[in-house]
Design brief:
single chain; alpha+beta; DNA primase DNAg catalytic core, N-terminal domain; Dna Topoisomerase Vi A Subunit, Chain: A, domain 2; 5 domains; five-stranded antiparallel beta sheet; four-stranded antiparallel beta sheet; 26 helices; binds zinc ion
């Protein structure tokens, strides 16, 4: 197999191809004084917001935050995985990839993990189909109306009731249990030697990456008294639930063809839809939607409909996901199912046509959010003041000015306010960074970004930063993982760094940092600035802690808990001194 983690190959592609020529093939691009600007194809762009730097080989859209190198652009635009993109661009650059490139050491470990998962998935699948033990699982799937071709396509399986079914299988095939432990398939016994099976008496859903390789497993109980209802593989070297969807390997072509993707909340919902012939669907894996999810999905389409269960937690999840979509410049539709139903029961009761109708008529997530807040105000759950402020805080994040003003108008109408009243709140949010809480978050993130920016230009400052104890003060998880790569793993080369974050939202942060010049002329100034960033971030953290301590102290006083009060006060005074 081709070794795609080959830094050299990627560098060679970048050396031979021009990012300007590549992007020119997809959108209009023109030269300005210093560089190039293009209409961003990743959001509805009216002014050229995408900047392209030929020398650095980077693009970045300062409106929607999309960014990266030519591979990142090509992957995202064409909806490809990294190996697919490398293979295409290598061809375009006239590079022949040696089929016999030996895999490097790290890769063979990963490929062993994939092989093991594939063997285990085959084992569970055979147990489901062929053994007497699989009867209850077969009954369950029949009851859920999952036909045999779907069981086959998704290689559904059954983990028998018992502590060592898989352990024995591993032994028979001379597979070290420690390898299976890395994937969470077996668990080390607390006392004594040996391992036991994680999945027992459960229907098994192999979870695949977009290339169709098994990265983990989900297990659903058969006996209603077993807890919990679902068990999933723990995070591992190859399984990251925040980055992967269930089913995307099978549904990606349907999504492309339909030009629309439906997101549901779990693999059983997914399979109900898929079995009913609605195949342009993906499911999250027991986690709320993340930015990485959205970035992955938009490779295939930017028309997305999110489906939530008809209960309070569904509404909350819908509201939470709004920010993530807005950050990516997307506005999905949202379906909240009637109270008490999930996709499976809805399909069973109302049928496929009714489901399609819901999808076709889905309001945008923003409309839903505004209506939801307006209703809260009408029910007396929030005041008019805080309701309109909440909505204004969200509208600030809508990048498209035309769309934003149409929503400002709608909000004003629904709340019976003048358009100007809403508009001024949105403007104030834009200029001042909103209310206290949001403002601190913003200020934090600016210092975090500046720190990233300086380190990317002066990676030799890593040592200084490491000694300063930077870990505690960074809150943005993307910034955190990039800094880790630079400081802890010592990846100082820009191309390698981008490679580590291929296909992830973090690439946009790297391109942003590299393309916005902080105007620092020498290492000495850079060093001073980065120290001041760390200091400010630490102070902000300290302030946060002091604030929460003050609240806890008030509570302790109210509850007359003198001992707690004393302890908190001591911490408070110490921190004040530190400050
Ligand atoms: Zn953009």
């Amino acid at each position: 197999m081709v070794n795609f983690n080959n830094d050299f190959l990627v560098k060679e592609i970048k050396r031979r191809l021009s990012i300007i020529n590549l992007i020119e093939g997809y959108t209009s691009i023109k030269k300005t004084g210093k560089g190039y600007v293009a209409l961003c194809p990743f959001h509805d762009d009216h002014t050229p917001s995408m900047h392209v730097d030929e020398e650095k080989g980077l693009f970045h859209c300062f409106s929607c935050g999309a960014g990266g190198d030519m591979l990142g652009f090509y992957m995202r635009y064409n909806g490809l995985t990294f190996p697919e993109a490398v293979s295409d661009l290598a061809k375009r650059a006239n590079i022949t990839i040696e089929k016999s490139t030996p895999p490097v050491k790290g890769d063979s470990q990963t490929s062993n993990l994939f092989k093991l998962n594939s063997a285990v998935s085959g084992f569970y699948h055979r147990v489901l189909l062929e053994s007497r033990k699989g009867g209850s699982a077969r009954d369950y799937l029949e009851k859920r109306k999952i036909p045999s071709d779907v069981i086959e396509e998704f290689r559904l399986g059954y983990a028998p009731d018992g502590w060592d079914t898989l352990v024995k299988f591993l032994k028979k095939h001379n597979i070290p249990p420690s390898l299976a432990e890395k994937l969470g398939l077996v668990v080390k016994k607390q006392s004594g030697d040996g391992y036991y099976d994680r999945f027992r008496n459960r229907v098994i859903f192999p979870i695949c990456n977009v290339e169709g390789k098994v990265i983990g497993f989900g297990g659903r109980r058969i006996k209603e008294s077993d807890e919990p209802k679902y068990i999933n593989s723990p995070e591992s070297e190859i399984y990251h639930k925040r980055k992967n969807f269930y089913g995307l390997d099978s549904s990606k072509d349907h999504i492309r063809k339909n030009k629309r993707a439906i997101i549901v909340e779990g693999y059983t919902d997914f399979l109900s839809l898929f079995s009913a012939g609605i195949k342009n669907v993906v499911a999250t894996l027991g986690t709320s939607l993340t930015r990485d999810h959205v970035v992955t999905l938009r490779r295939y389409t930017d028309r997305i409909v999110v489906v939530f269960d008809g209960d309070e937690s569904g509404v909350k999840a819908a509201v939470r996901s709004l920010d993530i979509f807005l950050e990516e410049g997307l506005l999905p539709g949202v379906v909240i199912l009637p109270e008490g139903s999930d996709p499976d029961s809805f399909l069973a009761e109302k049928g496929t046509e009714a489901f399609y109708k819901l999808i076709d008529e889905a309001p945008t997530l923003l409309d839903f959010y505004i209506d939801n807040t307006v209703n809260e105000y009408k029910n007396g759950a929030v005041t008019l003041n805080s309701g309109v402020k909440e909505i204004a805080d969200v509208l600030v994040k809508v990048n498209d000015p035309i769309l934003r003003s149409s929503y400002i108008r709608k909000t004003a109408e629904k709340l019976g306010l003048g358009e100007n009243e809403v508009l001024s709140l949105v403007r104030r949010g834009k200029v001042h960074g909103q209310t206290g809480g949001v403002k601190t978050v913003k200020a934090h993130s600016n210092h975090e970004k500046l720190m990233l920016n300086i380190l990317l230009t002066y990676p030799e400052l890593s040592r200084v930063v490491a000694e300063e104890g930077w870990e505690g003060c960074v809150s943005n998880p993307d910034v955190m993982s990039i800094l880790e790569e630079i400081i802890v793993k010592g990846v100082h080369d820009m191309s390698s760094l981008l490679l580590s974050f291929q296909g992830s939202a973090a690439q946009g942060l790297i391109s942003e940092a590299l393309m916005s010049s902080p105007g620092i002329s020498d290492g000495g100034t850079a060093s001073k600035m980065i120290m001041s960033c760390i200091k400010k971030l630490k102070l902000a953290k300290l302030d946060e802690r002091l604030k929460s301590l003050r609240l806890s102290i008030n509570d302790a006083v109210k509850n007359k808990d003198a001992e707690l009060e004393k302890r908190l006060l001591t911490e408070y005074t110490d921190l004040r001194k530190q400050k």
